[in-house]
Design brief:
The chain contains five helices and four strands. With about 100 residues, it is an alpha/beta fold. A four-stranded parallel β-sheet has the order 2-1-3-4, sandwiched between helices. The chain is globular, with a radius of gyration of 15 Å.
């Protein structure tokens, strides 16, 4: 199984290529749809990485494909601008999950 990246910037793609991960850079929603369709048609892709910007800019599309597809596993990753999450997101997540303030 392969890992494939759909990124919004060339820097993230370049870094991932150094680790042996192929991918594509897209910017518009239609380009993202085409890239997703192409990735879904390749049965060798087991993990599909998307930069977090797509989740912020096109949440309807990203959430739809995450819910409808079993494979590939779709994971949002931070890009060169960092994560869009709060600094204490893990603590907040655990607190919500167990109902205790940490």
């Amino acid at each position: 199984m392969k890992i494939y990246l759909i990124s919004d910037n060339i820097d993230t793609l370049t870094g991932m290529r150094l680790a042996g991960v192929e991918g594509v850079v897209v910017h518009e929603k239609e380009e993202l749809k085409e890239a997703l369709t192409k990735a879904f048609s390749d049965r060798d892709i087991g993990i599909l990485l998307l930069t977090e910007k797509f989740g912020r800019d096109f949440p309807d599309l990203v959430n739809k494909v995450k819910l409808e597809r079993e494979l590939p596993l779709i994971i949002e990753i931070p890009d060169r601008h960092g994560t869009g999450r709060k600094a204490d997101f893990i603590t907040s997540y655990v607190s919500e999950a167990i109902g205790l303030k940490l």
